[in-house]
Specification:
234 residues; mainly alpha; Ferritin; 67% helix; globular
């Protein structure tokens, strides 16, 4: 990632103070199920599971949109619109994968082992279940799929804001890991690494809301990667 004028501490505080989106019943049930499995308190392992799941909807959208492009290849408008979704989905999925790698490096540095819910075959079953949910949403209502993902990303943004606040020791823990520096070269502490992850989740949240037809829910800030928001899905 390129260096920007972002004030990561300010944006973390803004995430912390902003009320959560009013989640749907299905989203609240999903978050409750995760808390029952991993515990209510956020840990690196819980964040790792969150990132394992976070990339799944983007892959499902890509599959769905390629099918749509194949069926509508004669309509250039359809092709261009679906390509934008695919391009963003790939970028977002890659970004979520970076989060997973960074969290893994932090767990290694802290000498932490995976808890039971990250030991095979448990994560495979969790991933398969979420793939079914994401795939069905993308098939029957892409707009609803975007909105559910926006809820997921809003939840993740708030989790990371709270996570950093709960670990003041990260403020003085310098980052020397080459892989983490590849993810975000301009951060110097682990606190800023996790602030950057939380801000990424806000970016994903914003785009999901825009595609879902709720641009009024977009949270703008200085240094946003894009000022032009996408049109909602048709």
């Amino acid at each position: 990632m390129e260096e920007t004028k972002l004030d990561l501490k300010r944006e973390q505080q803004a995430s912390w103070e902003r009320p959560r989106y009013k989640y749907s019943l299905s989203a609240r049930f999903f978050f409750l199920a995760m808390d029952l499995m991993t515990g209510k308190k956020t840990s690196l392992a819980k964040a790792k599971l969150l990132e394992i799941l976070a990339g799944i909807p983007y892959r499902e959208w890509e599959t769905h949109q390629y099918g749509r492009m194949t069926r509508g290849y004669r309509d250039n408008g359809v092709v261009q619109y679906t390509r934008r979704i695919v391009t963003w989905g790939r970028e977002a999925h890659d970004n979520e994968y970076w989060h997973l790698l960074v969290i893994q490096e932090k767990m290694k540095a802290d000498g932490l082992r995976d808890p039971w819910y990250l030991v095979a075959p448990i994560p495979w079953l969790i991933v398969w279940s979420y793939r079914v949910i994401a795939g069905l949403l993308a098939l029957f209502s892409l707009r609803r799929a975007f909105l559910f993902n926006a809820e997921f990303e809003d939840h993740a943004e708030h989790i990371y804001a709270q996570f950093v606040a709960e670990h003041p020791e990260w403020e003085t823990q310098s980052v020397h890991n080459a892989l983490v520096k590849e993810y975000c070269s301009y951060v110097s502490t682990w606190a800023d690494v996790f602030r950057r992850i939380g801000l990424d989740e806000r970016d994903h949240r914003n785009r999901s809301f825009a595609y879902g037809g709720k641009a009024e829910c977009v949270v703008r800030y200085d240094g946003m990667p894009e000022t032009e928001l996408p049109d909602p899905v048709s």
